[in-house]
């Protein structure tokens, strides 16, 4: 285990420390979040050392107590992101909040490295935004280096795990579990998925699953999860199972009806206003007449949690982001940089003039209508389905083209070559 600890210390010194230094150059909330990240991995180092001196706990309360310092730091990191959605460096904060979930690898078996890869991919979605935002500004080169350093660290973390903890965190085989601190009274677990009594597992395995779920609940704290959901296993993750997304209904451990589960949840106040250079459109339902017509190209538009609405954006703006919207339609004139759809369902969008890039992430059911001036657009999709793009034909009608969802990879001696499989 000494080799594992030495390698972990080298990982932190050689790959996490540069990220901390670049965060210090940016300052503010980015620096504070990075400080908490360093503290979290210092606690993980202690946890790995502790595991080398004791047997794997069979009591969920024991394991939760051991993981409590890490869980508390993860919660603080996540809260910085959630409290500052409109911050100028929100993409930085989101990248760290998404990537810090990788620290939960210590509870994942038998494939902890692929789990870290998933968290790295989630973080990279936001670091890519940082790279795009600062690529043409040499004065802000430290933002570029910051983004690269964070992804580099998560990538090196995967390599460390593959080498030293291939099938999961290595616990001592000779020590006994009584060496662990005495367990406190078990805290109430968050409401989660009902897998039945034990799910066919031994009591020790079930206890480990419960403890793992408690840690994941802290790792993945967010607006929806804090309302009663927790991540458990891959087959229950909404981004891997589209059938779970339309209703967001999961079974509670208590026999409550759906109406009882949602009782008391209030609709957030509607907002349509300009804050600095950002138009905020939030929490509308059933509005087909939303309009932004006093715009200019330095402004951006952020649309959040709207349902069964149509928004028209007149003039030329820098960017548009549509996040957590359902049955949402948007018509826009001209875009300087990018239009983004994130965590959405059933989207219709029409580009009247030019738009360089459209990104679609974690979104199901997208219908894009492109005008003649927008045919040079780049469409980048990730973990999304049912994307159809309609382009004008010579006779004036629109012709629909589906975006392939399947990929084919073939070996060509040097590596794998991947190409899309057309839906034609």
TrEMBL record:
Pfam families: CAP_C, CAP_N
Compositionally skewed regions (Pro residues) per UniProt: 180-190
GO biological process, one term: cAMP-mediated signaling
Spans annotated as Disordered: 176-204
Keywords: Cell membrane, Membrane
Coiled-coil annotated spans: none
Protein name: Adenylyl cyclase-associated protein 2-like
Gene behind this protein: LOC113793618
């Amino acid at each position: 285990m000494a080799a594992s600890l030495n390698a972990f210390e080298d990982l932190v010194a050689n790959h996490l420390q540069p990220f901390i230094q670049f965060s210090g150059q940016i300052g503010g909330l980015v620096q504070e979040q990075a400080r908490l990240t360093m503290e979290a991995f210092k606690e993980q180092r202690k946890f790995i050392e502790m595991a080398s001196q004791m047997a794997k706990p069979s009591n969920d309360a024991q394991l939760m107590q051991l993981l409590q310092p890490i869980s508390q730091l993860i919660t603080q990191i996540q809260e910085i992101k959630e409290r500052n959605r409109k911050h100028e460096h929100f993409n930085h904060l989101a990248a760290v909040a998404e990537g810090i979930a990788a620290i939960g690898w210590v509870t994942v078996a038998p494939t902890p490295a692929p789990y870290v890869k998933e968290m790295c991919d989630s973080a990279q979605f936001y670091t890519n935004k940082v790279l795009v935002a600062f690529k043409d500004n040499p004065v802000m080169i430290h933002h570029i280096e910051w983004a690269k350093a964070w992804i580099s660290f998560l990538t090196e973390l995967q390599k460390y795990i593959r080498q030293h903890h291939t099938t999961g965190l290595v616990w001592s085989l000779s020590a006994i579990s009584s060496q662990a601190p005495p367990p406190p009274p078990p805290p109430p677990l968050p409401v989660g998925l009902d897998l039945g009594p034990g799910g066919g597992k031994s009591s020790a395995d079930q206890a480990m699953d419960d403890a793992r779920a408690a840690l994941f609940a802290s790792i993945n704290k967010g607006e929806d999860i804090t309302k009663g959901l927790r991540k458990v296993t891959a087959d229950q993750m909404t981004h891997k199972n589209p059938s779970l997304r339309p209703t967001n209904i999961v079974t509670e451990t208590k026999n409550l009806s759906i109406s009882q589960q949602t009782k008391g949840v209030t609709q957030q106040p509607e907002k349509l206003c300009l804050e600095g250079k950002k138009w905020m459109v939030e929490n509308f339902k059933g509005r087909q007449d939303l309009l932004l017509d006093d715009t200019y190209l330095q402004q951006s538009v952020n649309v959040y949690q709207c349902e069964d609405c149509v928004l028209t954006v007149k003039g030329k703006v820098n960017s548009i982001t549509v996040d957590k919207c359902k049955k949402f339609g948007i018509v826009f004139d001209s875009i300087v940089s990018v239009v983004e759809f994130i965590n959405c369902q059933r989207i219709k969008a029409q580009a009247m003039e030019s738009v360089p890039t459209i990104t679609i992430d974690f979104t199901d059911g997208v219908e894009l209508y492109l005008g003649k001036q927008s045919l040079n657009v780049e469409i980048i999709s990730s973990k999304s389905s049912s994307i159809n793009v309609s382009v004008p034909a010579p006779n004036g009608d629109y012709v629909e083209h589906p975006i392939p969802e399947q990929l084919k990879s073939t070996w060509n001696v040097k590596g794998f070559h991947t190409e899309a499989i057309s839906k034609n």
